[in-house]
Task: structure prediction
Amino acid sequence: MRSFPRTVRQRLLAAALVAVSVGGLSVPVAYASDHSDKLKQQQKAAKHQVATVQNDLDDSSAALKKAAGQLAGAKAKLADARAHLASVNTQLAAAQKVEAAAQAALTKAKADLAQAVADLKAGQAAVDTQRDAVKQTVLTTFTAGDPSLLEMGDLLNATSPSDIVRKLDYGRVVSTAQTNTYQALQSAEVVLSVKKKNTAAAEAKVADDEQAAADHLAEVQDLQAQAVAATSAVTGLVDQAEAAKADAATAKAHDEALLEAAKQREQKITQQILADAAKHGQKRSVSSTSGMFLNPVRNTYVTSPYGWRIHPIYHYWGLHDGDDFHAPCGVPEVAVGTGRVVSEYYSDVWGNRLFLDLGTINGDQYTAIYNHISAYRTHEGQMVDAGETLALAGTTGWSTACHLHFTIMRNGNPIDPQTVLQ
Result:
């Protein structure tokens, strides 16, 4: 179980302790060679580092884990909603540009159509004018007679060669004028035909551009509706995230209160053990404290080691004050040394707990604490031998799976269990 420093000064002190402890945990080569089994255990533990995160998550209540999960989910949904809103706004901006271009094209097409219609009217007027001219020519011809016959009569009535030339020239002028009139009508009709085609093409272009503009406008309106919905969704998810944040804060405060109460009770028990040890506790000396205790669970490995770290939910720089051992439900948990069971009780935080007084060794008092127990196999006040079963592994308290959270206290302070276990 972690303890959580509350001030910056305490965090800095914790960091300093880490630096000191790292330097003090180096293992001599000779010691390593004499403890190959321990090295193998550490290698096995390294392969199970993935379990560390899960065990860290065990160090919080179900309510906080749920609140933290809901907060994380709300934040993820909010991030997705904001990304969707940004995407919709990007699409909307692009669609609005296309729609504006479509409207501009439609405006131009309508202007071109208006010009084509005006040109068509002018062409029709020109054709009408030429047709009137042709009608007049035809009327004159039928009224005055055939130009060829008139020209022949004029020649017969000529009185001199010069009169003949003059009458021939006049006949040619009349004939040329008539020809020009007919050709002008033909040209006007050709131009009118082209203008009709141009007008038809302009009308088709306007129809196409109107459809395109309508389609783009519909797309813009759809994206605008999506943007409104996405904005509303973001607003709702912000509210959800804030509510989840408040719930997490409440659960966290509740956990911290429980943890503080549990720590105070633990301190009282520890102080009582120290007081009893000073009066009549067993005292002994050993040549070395390294490896002086058995492992609390046989044939297992550490899934989450002792040390300072950032808690994944609380985000405090705190001490994981023991080793988490892989221990399936019901696995025996044994006495790491000869001692006396001094306390057994239930904690909301640590579940069923057991305190084993290991006596005073080389002038320091040692206590082993077993947590998350499913069942006891001893009782308070009982003397036990090293290796004797004390309890069975469980998942009581703040725990999501069966395991043993094991702590060694020296003079009332937690130490790295690996410095004294075999």
